[in-house]
Structures are given as C-alpha cells and as structure tokens.
Design goal:
By secondary structure, the protein is mostly helical. The chain is built from eleven helices and no strands. Helices cover 74% and strands 0% of the residues. Its main location: membrane.
Amino acid sequence: MTAMTKIISTEWKLFLREPAMVAFSVFFPTVLMLVLGAIPALRTPDPKFDDLRFVDAYGPTLVVIALAFLGLNRLPTAVASYREKGVLRRFSTTPVHPSRLLVAQVAVNLIAGVVSIGLVLVVGKAVFDIDLPHSPLGFLAACLLGMLSLSALGLLVAAWAPGAASAGGWATVVFMLVMFFGGAYLPRFLMPDFLVRVGEHLPPGVGALQAAWLGTAPSLVHLGILALITLVAGTVAAKSFRWE
C-alpha cells in the first residue's frame, strides 16, 4: 500500500466516524427521495415537469444536496481544523507533504459522493422505477466536475478562513447559495427564469446534471464553466493556502 493510499484509507475511516456527516451526505438524499416519493401527487406525471413525475425531475437536485454537503460542509471545516490543530504543520516535517492530506480529503469526497449518488439511483429505480440518467457518461462527467468544483471552493474557504469555526461559517453561506440555486429549498420551476439560468451554470452544475439525467449529453458550456471554476478556485487556494 502506497503512502497516498494509506492516507486516503485513514481519512475515509475518520469520515465514517462522523455519523452526522455520513447521515446527511450519504443517506439523506435517498431518505428525502423516499419521503417525497411517498406522496402520491409527486408520483404522478405533471405538465410542469414535461409530463414527468416530480420524483424523476428532482433527481439532479438530490445529487446537488449530496455534493454540497461533502464539498462545502465537510471539507472546509476538516482542513481548517487540521491546520488549527497543527496537523498540517507536523506533516510538513515528514517526507509526506501536507498537500497529500488535501488530496486525500478530495478523494474521500469523491468516494462518498459515488456511494451517495449510487444509493439514490439504486433505491430510486427499485422503489419508484425512476428513469436512470439518459446520458451515463455525461452524468458521470457532470458529477465529477460538480464534486471537484465544490471541493475547490471548499479548499478556497479553508485557505482564507482564519480558523475552523470561521471556515464553517463562511462555507455555510456558500452552501446555502448552492442549495438555493440547485433547487433544494425551492423547486426550480417556481424560480424566476433568470435565477434558473444562473443556477444552471453555478457549481455543482444542476443544468448539466439535469440534461444528462433527463435528456441528452450535458452542454459543453456547462461542463467547461465547472472545469474553469475548479481550475481557478483550486489554483487560488493552492497559492494562498497556509499550512500553519
């Protein structure tokens, strides 16, 4: 086992010791789908959703919820806490550079995201016979870039925040914006058109997720914006990050 694999394995075990975060980021999207799907009206085709059922149309938003919890609730606080406790500084005195710890945090997010989204797809198909993503490769690309873009923003918050408490507070503001534009608080069909258009281009890319799930391949523009945000936020975070 390589040093990087060991770090990822350790961070994954530490993640599993956070029951609240595991519950919200991994299981909550599936539980929310089951609760909403228990309402008969939401299992009936509706013209508002192009004659789809609400449980089908809400799928991309469930992905947004999972990715937002991981990228903006867990990662910034965890990284800022490591710096506050001197963990990153101690890593810098060893042959293992502390940047590997940050990479491991993103890797844990990716693993947890796969589990969470996989649960939504499997349970949704088994219980409600929801449509699986029409463009599997496009959906995979949208999920990956969505997770990376939110993780980059989370690392940027961790880089700039003076402590773990501040990182949690700042990240919560970004988290709430992501959840709002992703349709978690208010269904997107009730939003003004310009807010829907803005939300489609913001991380984690609900427009790309919705296109891949309900239609065809996501727009290259949507994917390109997510990639650009990942690159810019990740670069700024790397250049401004303080190890102690």
